[in-house]
Design a protein that fits this description.
The complex is a heterodimer. By secondary structure, chain A is an alpha+beta fold. Chain A has three helices and six strands. Chain A has a domain of 112 residues: Nuclear Transport Factor 2, Chain: A (Roll). In chain A, 47% of the residues lie in helices and 40% in strands. Chain A has a six-stranded mixed β-sheet. In chain A, a hairpin with a 2-residue loop joins β4 and β5. Chain B has a single domain, classed as Nuclear Transport Factor 2, Chain: A. Helices cover 40% and strands 46% of the residues of chain B. Chain B contains three helices and six strands. In chain B, α1 packs antiparallel against α2. The longest helix of chain B is centred in the N-terminal third of the chain and has 40 residues. Chain B is elongated, with a radius of gyration of 19 Å. Classes of the chains: A alpha+beta, B alpha+beta.
Chain lengths: 161, 144
């Protein structure tokens, strides 16, 4: 009695194991892209938040926040000039807070493992000789995930003509 | 003890030298790729070479702020009567498998019979994918 039972049990176990494997494989196949998709989505959310944080910190001359956002080897091209992190922070430090207003338009984030590329446009409202001027810019930012999180390593913007 | 320390020091120095050599070779490779892509492939409209250098997700922003996908950039290169892209003062910053190349450019282009000259700065992003550097993003900012 025990033998058939054992066999049934054994057959059941083999089938169950086989089914379990299939289910696990299917789950792995479906979870894999889900996990990747989730990671990619998390990255996108993080990068979008950092882009907002950067704009906010710049508008409030918050150099401490900017220091954390920018990599030490940051290269930034603004108004056609190549500036380092130190030069950029020095410029922000010397500006009147919120003298210029930056309004971000929708952005696109592309992720490649530990690198994210952001492309988008923004409107810059400046006060020139008592007159408000609005200029639109298109930019590309490059973010890299380093040991303490995402940092900006390159940024450049060109005016839309 | 001293021998152990000396061995550890030598090993660290060797690792350092190997890293410097590796970085230097990557820098040279990237500068060569920049020259091949911009100076040769764009000028001769060698889209096969460009295809091998640029990632399929490549994005380009021209000095007027117009953005292009890889396919749109190829169409633009093909449509130009002549396209000369000269670079100088290039610098490479390596961040593991990602590299940022900056430099100064001069573009002489004839589009539908109209010649134009642009000077500015560029920022290119490269990624090491399966052992090969691929251009993923490029922006040209006019200094005129």
């Amino acid at each position: 009695m025990s033998q058939p039972s054992s066999k049934r049990g054994s057959t059941f176990t083999v089938r169950a194991k086989s089914t379990c494997r299939r289910v696990l494989l299917l789950m792995a196949c479906s979870i894999g892209p889900m996990v990747f998709g989730q990671q990619s989505s998390n990255t996108e959310t993080a990068i979008r938040a950092l882009e907002k944080e950067w704009t906010y910190a710049q508008g409030h001359n918050d150099n401490r926040a900017l220091d954390l956002i920018f990599d030490n080897a940051l290269v930034y091209v603004e108004y056609g000039r190549l500036v380092s992190k130190g030069e950029y922070l020095a410029r922000i430090r010397g500006e009147i807070p919120s003298a210029d207003e930056i309004v971000m338009d929708p952005i696109t984030v592309r992720t490649f493992d530990n690198t994210a590329i952001v492309i988008g446009t923004y409107r810059e409202k400046t006060l020139q000789r008592g007159q408000h001027e609005i200029k639109r810019w298109r930019f590309i930012d490059t973010w890299i995930y380093k040991k303490n999180g995402w940092v900006l390593v390159a940024a450049a913007a060109t005016p839309l003509r | 003890m001293r021998t152990g320390l000396l061995a550890a020091f030598c090993l660290a120095a060797l690792c350092c030298t190997a890293q410097v050599t590796q970085d230097s070779s990557a820098e040279q490779e990237l500068l060569a790729l920049e020259r091949v892509a911009k100076l040769q492939a764009c000028e001769s409209k060698d889209l096969d070479t460009l295809d091998g250098i640029l990632d399929d997700g490549f994005l380009y922003v021209d000095p007027s702020g117009k953005h292009y996908t890889k396919r749109e950039f190829f169409t633009f290169v093909k449509s130009a009567d002549s396209f000369q892209y000269v670079t100088e003062a290039m610098a490479v910053r390596l961040h593991g498998n990602t590299a940022i190349v900056t430099g100064v450019y001069q573009i002489r282009i004839v589009l539908h019979g109209q010649p134009s000259l642009e000077r500015g700065r560029f920022v290119d992003t490269w990624l090491l994918k399966n052992g090969r550097w691929k251009g993923v993003a490029s922006i040209d900012v006019s200094t005129q």
